[in-house]
Amino acid sequence: MNVNMPGLATTFSLTLLAVAAPVAANAQAGASATGGLPFEVKPLATFNSPWAMAFLPNGNLLVSQKEGSMILFDPASGSRRTVAGTPAVSSKGQGALMDIVPAPDFATSKRLYFSYSEAGSGDSSRVALATAVLDQAGGTLRETKTIFRGQDASTGGHYSGRIGFSPDGRYLFFTSGDRQLFDPAQDPKSTLGKVLRLNLDGTPAAGNPLAAKGFDPAVWSYGHRNLLGIAFDKQGRLWEMEMGPRHGDEINLIKPGLNYGWPKASNGSHYDGRDIPDHAPGDGFEAPKVSWNPAISPGGLAYYDADLFPKWKNSLFITGLSGKSLDRIALDGENATKKDHWDMGERIRAVRTGPDGALWLLEDGPRGRLLMLTPKT
């Protein structure tokens, strides 16, 4: 979930641009050769299989790593430290320390929300959502508490675990993947394959649209597969990015109570070649606004409405894992249109809008780089 913090001091941008070159010299070489890309690409650091990132009000970054560590990184100086107090993470397969999002009142509360894969019985695991306070020095998580757990443990992947706050800061939206179990995405009693709307303490929010129909009271929408990004636009619409099966990756406009079809409908196919009915008018399912075939295997999503790239305001940015790409989707009300597809040369795990309007990317893998994208001069 992208969080813009327009109140940060503009001096952060100037300082960072001044030190980017020497810091980049210590990073893995390659991405600085931008070729025909419409932006400059500056590598700033490398991380061990990074998964997500979040900017703090002072301009520092928190970066989650697959094996369960959280890194506090200062982009201006290049310094880093490992944050103590993270919970145990089951990182096998698709498991990871996943999303990190500061609370709406982080400036005063220092509270973070983060998701991770938690070990269950035997070889099983489940998605978990936790909150903690980052101490003043930024080196330790305190008052760590897991506030939501997926009700079904599985040995599969598709944890999802993306976090977003409603524009008014009152509610937390959380994505819960289908754990490669297919049918729970349509099961009213399961939280798998769903977008959930929670109170800030992790309990189901009152007034969720399907509770009166016998659904788990946390469910906001259902029929999802592997939901790897959510973001609100400037009008308060909730957009979701989802990794499809064999092709059929999609962007959805999430509306309360709707069924998005999985596994009964998809613009992709099963990995064994079996067909899945495409979305079609009148099928009872909400069709995606954008889909990809062939797949790009999307890893991250950010909403962009900053001034640094003025022509790209009111856009979604999507990262590609198998696609090794960055895509821009232009929004116009409830419509979404593919606009740009850039080959980044590496698997891209995450994207965020920085406090100065730059786009920040995390590459996937054991030496995944942190990249800052700025306009060409």
Oligomeric category: single chain
Total domain count: 1
* Mean of pLDDT: 91
Sheet/helix structural class:
mainly beta
Report the top-level CATH class: Mainly Beta
The tally of strands reads 24
Radius of gyration, CA atoms, in whole angstroms: 19 Å
The CATH architecture category equals 6 Propeller
Separate helix tally: 2
Largest sheet: number of strands, sense, barrel closure: 4 strands, antiparallel
Order of helices and strands: HEEEEEEHEEEEEEEEEEEEEEEEEE
Q: Remind me, CATH topology?
A: Neuraminidase
Distance between the termini: 29 Å
Shape: globular
CATH superfamily: TolB, C-terminal domain
- Helix content percent band: under 10%
Strand content: 35-45%
- Largest beta sheet: what is the strand line-up? 1-24-23-22
The low-confidence parts are 1-34
Helix and strand arrangement:
Layout lengths: L10 H15 L13 E9 L2 E6 L5 E5 L4 E4 L6 E3 L14 E6 L3 H4 L1 E9 L5 E10 L6 E9 L10 E6 L5 E6 L17 E6 L19 E4 L3 E7 L5 E6 L5 E6 L35 E3 L5 E7 L10 E6 L4 E8 L2 E9 L4 E6 L5 E5 L4 E8 L2
Antiparallel strand pairs: 1-24, 2-3, 3-4, 4-5, 6-7, 7-8, 8-9, 10-11, 11-12, 12-13, 14-15, 15-16, 16-17, 18-19, 19-20, 20-21, 22-23, 23-24
